[in-house]
Give the backbone structure.
Amino acid sequence: MAYVTERGILWGMVPDTTGRVFWVSPSDGYTIAGLAYRASDENDGLSPERALRTVNRAWDLVAATCGDMIILLPGAHTTTAVITADVAGVTMMGLPRYTPGAVARPITSLTISASADIIAVSAANVQLAWLHLIPVTTMDSVSMTASTGTGVHIHHCSVDLDTAAASTSTQGFNFGGTTPNAHIHDCVFYCDSAQGEAIDGVTGMGQALIERCRFIQSTGTWAAALKTSVTADGSRGILVRDCDFIAAADATMTVGILGTAGVTEETIHIHRCFFSDSVGTAIDTFGARGAEIAENYQAGVGATDGGVLLTAIT
């Protein structure tokens, strides 16, 4: 269970759970409440004072569908191999920063020293939260490549698409298989060059919800921030709402939301999204009935009309 302090509150404000909480340290030595401890994969990980050393060891210990959680202590975590999120119903998160209505960069970061994706989700109902993810070149922050990854829930995460060398194969969240019922919200993506998409939702990402996310291009050219390559009726029901696509004055976001030409059914619904003036085309490359749009605006520099209501896509 979660660690209870002498004041009767959960340490680090860990969300309520009926399962066990496994703690992971970003380094061999770490500090809790001013006291020094040593992390080890020989520890049980069930208290902050007995933290594990590697994230994959924590995934070895959790049990499916009973509320188990993995908490990454604040700091820079580096894994040497892809983290295999292959146990259903498990939550992996950093310590929350409770700022109502804010999308802030988490204080717990996670990267990888190998040429591999950071996290590969292959179990149902996995939750990822409060993590700052830094992928390496040509790899993904989070990949979902199996149909068993349905119901993934990712929130209050940030993705650094600045650090890796420019490559259109470097992506944030890659839905590479049949992974329906995903929920992504309150995430922010930073890009400064010609990287791949922040979110790539391919065929099979049906009944998904993407909301309250920010896609920020600071310099360079970004071909597309969000891509939906859905082509079949089974992929319908994707809702993107209340997201901001922001490109600086000296940057170019060629397309905010990129679709697939030829799709004739309403596969995606885009509501109340905002696109900065430097976004070349807000919503592009959908078939005649491939996207439903409502209350989406593109800003204008110095505009007196509050921006332009998007009434058509190309």
The first strand starts at residue 21 and ends at 24. The helical segments are 55-61. The mean pLDDT is 87.
